[in-house]
Write a structure and sequence with these properties.
Two copies of one chain form a homodimer. Chain A is an alpha/beta fold and 423 residues long. Chain A is 35% helix and 12% strand. Chain A contains 16 helices and eleven strands. Chain A has a six-stranded parallel sheet. Chain A has a three-stranded antiparallel sheet with strand order 2-3-4, with no helix packed on it. A two-stranded parallel sheet of chain A has the order 1-5. In chain A, helix 5 links the parallel strand 7 and strand 8 (210-214). In chain A, helix 4 (160-172) packs parallel to helix 5. Chains A and B meet through helix 6, helix 7, helix 9 and helix 11 of A and helix 6, helix 7, helix 9 and helix 11 of B.
């Protein structure tokens, strides 16, 4: 097996919703109320919803085309972005150039977990717009290229009954995953342990979907010093995946829902062996706390492996210890268009780490596509024959894609000249 | 090399202060004000200080002699404990039976970080008692058996000037370490990043001592769900060591004090490779945040290895990845008399893990004593010739030590009949 023989399915990437996303997905009577992109006095494109600016989905969320020195939290305009951020046709060309067969996208304007709608005042309108987002993400973005996107949706966090309905509605249209906050209790919601979310989790199981918990949403779970630099957020985000796993595993959730599948999106994998050894030693040592049947006669690590998919972008230690983690629960990610993405050299980057760790071909296939496809119950070859799904075959389609990093100024000049991303 | 050839120096164990600890260490005029052990109506031995019960140092803190089913947070009496918990002569016999040459102890009644004194009202008296604790710990407990204990002290957290004085006073009597809270900002103190503690850290450097940050003190750094079971505290405690390292490494502390040495006591080691890879990738990827000189031209992982000693009781994954951690910064621990201790089979337990990980003899020596002795600048053979310091030699001195676990009731009957631990 060579690098070009790999098949890459990434279950963690992001779309920057385009300004016209609501055109086809909200009834006419609500069109005035849809979130709109407005250019402010400083030339920054802001999303406005229910009377206030809700997000400027640029800066750190869409750095893929820029040199590192230009990264930062400073907002900008659509025209400064690499068009693959918000244009699905360009996205697929960028996927081809990177040898990626398929990806699953998380929202930006809408918030990983529908935050924009949860924080808005009029919840009737918010629900319409949340559904509109889901319809756009699934029926327009993902459906534009069958077989290239694993459809994912969000649910109204403010109303469990409506959330259950939305899960079922999404299930009917082939959605494979719900993006949900990793530690809802730090965002003012009841915790996973409370039982409050059980109807939603039941619906997700009933629809055979995955609960995807992306890092970042739960950052406030760590009380950091007031003087902490921004590095803390970026470095420690993956520590929270272990805390999330603990909430689900030692709370009642996973035992209550034996069919629940949880992806710890962008959580990394190198912490897993240490965590699994610790929980097993804890369980077998602190017998005064646990009857032997607490985990159905299993070790907590076994229950972990039955429920979780752990996901990484770069993780040499985790790959070296892949058999301590479980070779069937590891999935690779691309994270386009965020700062941590390895685009456009993902095949080179992933292949080197896999080879350095001594992965057999079988391990490579499990990690780069088989585990993800099994976990999300998604057939990668339904629309693309296997021989056309490889890194080499996809890259052969994209020899004309220019992957050069360019300054924001240069993107703006080029895009505006071509009428791209102009608000 | 065989198991019996190992030399074991543990830098994380605990003493249960005996009721008469203040007899020789507080001037006569303060004797009425010393913390005292009082048996309450339920037969529980409580420490009383400044008019209130401050701690009952039993239950989970001294389970070493009990069967697992009897562990728990329920307090009890001194007479229920294995005498090695509070009697230094019995402690050394228990160390011999376990093949342990030397150990460093953390306080119980006093709190890992002088909490009992910090929370008391009269700070003049509190300072007298804190110093009395230090004098007892160093001049009485540790001095009773030269070469068997690495002396450690605590400082008055409520007054930086007094803390600096205490560090210097302790330095003069050969103290090697200060026990300090891992995340002071969650306990109402200024953070490490604030600069508030810099005079104390400078004094620790000036006295060539180690800053020992034991897990547990900082648990509130994690906002856990209100329904979280007690398992969370036990399992997640080591996740906080990574957060502590982050505070010190990405805050100004370690760069401001190039000579500062920090032991992450009981923090585990299996999380370290993942953390080091993540901080190096963060540093080299997020160049917009950092000039190349932020870590003096080094990678953050290199600075980590210059300052930290990482410590473990049981850690198969961490040992397998020891060269990714740094073979010179790993130290083994015993944790007597807490629930996680491997006593009295520590040699068997440690040897098996070291051999399973494929450690060469040289690695074994580094991990079991050389790294700790270098880091704490403490000569293990000053009082014990090397050939008498091994597991085999020490165990040969202790063939009469009965290591059987017994119920609390049985300990009470035996101890009270012998007049041991009677309050």
């Amino acid at each position: 097996m060579q690098m070009d023989d790999m098949i890459l399915v990434s279950i963690d990437d992001h779309m920057i919703e385009p300004p016209d996303m609501y055109k086809n997905h909200v009834p006419a009577k609500w069109q005035d109320a849809v979130p709109k992109v407005v250019k402010n006095a400083n030339g920054v494109d802001e999303w406005h919803f229910q009377g206030s600016a809700t997000s400027t989905p640029f800066g750190m969320a869409a750095t893929v085309g820029w040199p590192r020195e230009e990264w930062g939290f400073n907002p900008g305009s659509y025209s400064e972005l690499r068009p693959g951020c918000f244009d699905v046709h360009e996205r697929v060309r960028d996927m081809n150039a990177n040898g990626v067969l398929a990806q699953m996208n998380f929202p930006t304007m809408a918030g990983f977990n529908a935050r924009t709608f949860t924080e808005s005042e009029d919840k009737e309108i918010a629900l319409v717009m949340l559904r509109g987002y889901n319809d756009w993400a699934i029926d327009e973005w993902a459906a534009a290229y069958p077989g290239r996107f694993i459809p994912q949706g969000i649910v109204p966090m403010w109303d469990v009954d409506r959330a259950v309905e939305e899960v079922h509605r999404l299930g009917k249209k082939g959605c494979r995953s719900i993006s949900f906050p990793e530690t809802p209790h730090v965002q003012g919601f009841p915790s996973f342990l409370s039982g409050h979310w059980d109807p939603v989790l039941q619906a997700i199981c009933d629809e055979n979907m995955v609960l995807s918990l992306h890092i970042g949403a739960g950052f406030e779970v760590i009380r950091r010093p007031q003087e902490a630099p921004i590095d803390h957020l970026m470095v420690l985000a993956t520590q929270i995946s272990a805390i999330t796993a603990q909430d689900l595993l030692f709370g009642p959730t996973l035992r209550r829902f034996p069919a629940l599948r949880v992806a710890l999106s962008e959580g990394g994998i190198g912490w897993v062996p240490f965590y699994l050894e610790r929980i097993d030693r804890h369980f077998t040592n602190q017998t005064w706390l646990h009857g032997g049947e607490d985990f159905g006669g299993k070790l907590p690590s076994e229950v972990f492996r039955e429920h979780f998919l752990v996901c990484y972008i770069s993780d040499p230690s985790g790959l070296e210890l892949r058999h301590r983690i479980g070779i069937d629960i590891i999935a690779w990610e691309c994270d386009y268009p965020h700062t941590d993405t390895t685009w456009p050299e993902s095949p080179e980057f992933a292949w080197k780490e896999l080879q350095d760790a001594g992965c057999a071909d079988e391990d490579v296939h499990k990690i780069t596509w088989q585990n993800a496809c099994r976990f999300f119950d998604w057939d990668p070859f339904a629309h693309t024959p296997r021989e056309q799904a490889t890194v080499g075959a996809l890259r052969a389609l994209a020899t004309d894609v220019d992957t050069t990093r360019m300054s924001r100024t240069e993107w703006k000049a080029r895009n505006e000249a071509a009428g791209i991303g102009v608000v």
